[in-house]
Amino acid sequence: MAEIVLVHGIDQQQKSADKLESAWLPALAGGIRGAGFADVADRIWRNAGKPGSIDARMAFYGNLFLAPGQQGDEPGAFTSSEAQFAQILAVEWLKHVAERATKPKTQEIGEHELAYVNRQMGMEQGAGSIVRSAIGGLSRVSWFAPFGMGFAERFVNRSLAQVTRYLTSDTIRSAALESVFKLIGPETQVLIGHSLGSVIAYEAAHLMKQPLPLLLTLGSPLGLQTIVYQRLRPQPPGFPPVAQRWVNIADRDDFIAAEPNLEGLFNAGIPAGASFEGGYTVDNGAEPHNSDFYLGKSRVGAEIGKVFSKVCGTVNDC
Fold first, then answer.
1. Domains and CATH numbers, the chain
2. Is the pTM of this model over 0.85?
């Protein structure tokens, strides 16, 4: 069981828990060190495995999206119901580009591609056709396409499929949540979820029995009211009752993230003494959805550092 449980996001199916930990932990330690908690950072990364270290582990579920016997890691064709879900999600992402992009050129691309997709919807095209058009539009957005349009289309397609299938398949949902609960125990102090992993972390927090000092969600689509919010469990969505503090963090140009200020959507049932905070609080530069960039921010590190400073009381207690 781990003191910090990490939940990765979309498009990690070819990796493993160990591989992701090797990237996340130094990034996390860097953010904690930058926030002024060098002792906590060392206990997570430099002194990992030594007496007094903090055990941080990755809940890995990416393999759930690899179909046995299927060549490569492409998700395959959407079913009719999946295509309808993916259509709504893809159009919402395009809206985020058109409405929120800080770079005028990116916003212009978003507006153009959204208008094209909307025209197709007005012509009563099938959901599958609209999804393909939306995927093509998203792939033209610069941060979706750092290695060219061909790679971008495959990334967008896999991302849409994974979010869609988590929220529509009880089998995948249960297995993903099980990967988290394999690592949660009485010693768990922090639960961190990035991207789709933030949805899984949120739902896991609702199923926990022991108090959770910190729930940290990064680049999260939890507030996407048209599609994600309506399918969260339990319904209606609210504040996880065991969480003592929930912090949601997003980059304005992270178009996978929905409205980052989640307080208006999830303030039901906040326990006495618990706190809730969220907003556009970091700038991840050219890769706004990058998990390492989120984790390396002192804004994130400060939250974790404060938790373990309270746990230890003083450095000598650790």
1. 4-63+172-295+304-317 (3.40.50), 80-168 (no CATH)
2. yes
